[in-house]
Amino acid sequence: MNHVPSAASSIDSSGASSISTALRRASACPALARIVAARDGGLCRIRLPGGVLHAHEAAAIAEAATLYASGVIELTNRANLQLRGVKAGHEAALTARLLQAGLGPQTPDSTPDTIEAIDGIRNVMISPLAGRDPHALCDTRALAAQILVLLQGEPRFAALSPKFALLLDGGERLMATDHPHDIWLSAMPVDNDEPRFAIGFAGYPSLDAGSALATVTHTDALALLDALLHTFLDLAGPDDTRMRDLLALHDAHTLLQRAADRAGIALQRGPQVDAWRRTPTDATFRLGAHRQRDPQRWHAGGQPLAGRIDAATLRDLGALSTRHGDGSLRITPWQSVLLPDLATNSLDAVLAGLRALGFACDPSHPYAAIVACAGSTGCAKSAADTKADAQQLASLLTHDRLTSSGIHLTGCTRSCAAAHCAPHTLLAVATGRYDLYQRADALDESRFGVCIARHLSIEQAAAQLNHPARTPPDA
Ligand code: SF4
Questions:
Q1: What is the 3-state secondary structure (H, E, C) of the chain?
Q2: Does 336 contact ligand 1 (Cβ within 6 A)?
Q3: 291 CB under 6 A from ligand 1?
Q4: Rounded to the nearest whole angstrom, what is the distance from the C-alpha of residue 142 to the centroid of ligand 1?
Q5: Which of 163, 382, 448 to mutate to test the pocket of ligand 1 (most atoms within 8 A of CB)?
Q6: Which residue out of 74, 379, 389 has the highest number of ligand 1 atoms within 8 Å of its CB and is therefore the one to mutate?
Q7: 425 lines ligand 1 (CB under 6 A)
Q8: Separation of CA 376 and ligand 1 centre (Å)
Q9: Per the database record, which ranges form the Nitrite/Sulfite reductase ferredoxin-like domain (predicted)?
Q10: Which of 134, 316, 363, 375 would disulfide-bridge 284, Cβ 3.0–4.6 Å?
Q11: Which atom of ligand 1 is nearest to the CA of 374?
């Protein structure tokens, strides 16, 4: 493969590659070794490859969150965890404890600088049910692991933004296909040919035809991704951090072909690619119990309120999985938790255990509909305490047709908690007061949709949401 010599990499006397900080992009994103200040203390983000968390890792995080932070743990919309309230002066001890538990990037160079640089770019999204979903077209786990090795092993990729993200979709029924990614690969149904991925940029595999630029064989996918990342870095200026920035300057097909030529890979284009569309997904499969590909095994999942739990809950979740499953958890991009590989006779106990820990397991429960950002207790930008207001809202909602992740409470327009455009958005305007926005339909990709009511209290917002047919007062 024809790699461009990297200005951001170097080889030390031991032969190991190391990261030059000169070209690394400055970032305010929290990471394992980059504790970012927030209103409630430091914020530490723990990236979990594939959203996988083993019980011993959950126990280590719970212990570290109690010792060195507030004990508040958030599940993120990229299927990661973050610890809030990291105590001043305890940042290094927290990072060291998490690394000791095996939660950092896998690299022979464990200097803080390298850990910080490599950790931030490990953004590969796969389904929480990769390898287990009976409706999947392929098992993406092995390729996802190879992509992580690629990201961690090529020093030049440290120049990627920590927000630069890849989606690897195996065609699972439970898949976050509404989260925009810089590069996405989506499995296509297999006919007599070699299995292929549809590929696209700055978006997601769509239910509409025309979202894919081309297809690539499973065999060539890794080499193409490698070439694409190098091509991105070749062409990106200092302010071009995301693929959408590059697409403002370069045609997507030209960019993809440049990468394919670099890797010596033949892409497939034409009517079959143009007509391809992603089969529908269903996020409600993250909740309750469902049979896996192996008919003797099940997965069960639950939703905490607004993606927030405490340290004891995380530890107890790990113990629940050890008792009844394979000792692992899946953190999902819907800010929920899933336990895989359960025997049929353990389902009642697992669902009861999840409910006892405060998780909702029914898709019609208000917890399944609500997402909320950190709010004013954690973020100076927030006009309201969105987490507390989410709790009050959940207690008032009665409408059982609320769709999954259907109500988004956000403290400001940055919209940190929701990567997707929710059907309803409550935008904080003052303490306990929100403007209510409604998305017109599934094709409405405006930020929040149309404002249908202003300056609502939570009681008024609940009344409006419980009666969606009511004529909007100022639409
Ligand atoms: S959406 Fe705004 S208020 Fe909420 S956490 Fe993000 S920046 Fe803070």
A1: CCCCCCCCEEECCCCCEEECCCCCCCCCCCECCECEEECCEEEEEECCHHHEEEHHHHHHHHHHHHHHCCCEEEECCCCCEEEEEECCCCHHHHHHHHHHCCCCCCCCCCCHHHHHHHHHCCCEECCCCCCCCCCCCCCCHHHHHHHHHHHHHCHHHHHCCCCCCEEEECCCCCCCCCCCEEEEEEECCCCCCCCEEEEEEEECCCCCCCCCCEEEEHHHHHHHHHHHHHHHHHHCCCCCCCHHHHHCCCCHHHHHHHHHHHHCCCCECCHHHHHCCCCCCCHHHHCEEEECCCCCEEEEEEECHHHEEEHHHHHHHHHHHHHHCCCEEEECCCCCEEEEEEEHHHHHHHHHHHHHCCCECCCCCHHHHEEECCCCCCCCCCCCCHHHHHHHHHHHCCCCCCCCCCEEEECCCCCCCCCCCCCEEEEEEECCEEEEEECCCCCCCCCCCEEEEEEECHHHHHHHHHCCCCCCCCC
A2: no
A3: no
A4: 35
A5: 382
A6: 379
A7: no
A8: 8
A9: 39-100, 290-356
A10: 363
A11: 5
**Domains defined for the chain, CATH in brackets:** 137-170+177-275 (3.30.413.10), 368-466 (3.30.413.10)
Distance from Cα 375 to the centre of ligand 1, integer Å:
6
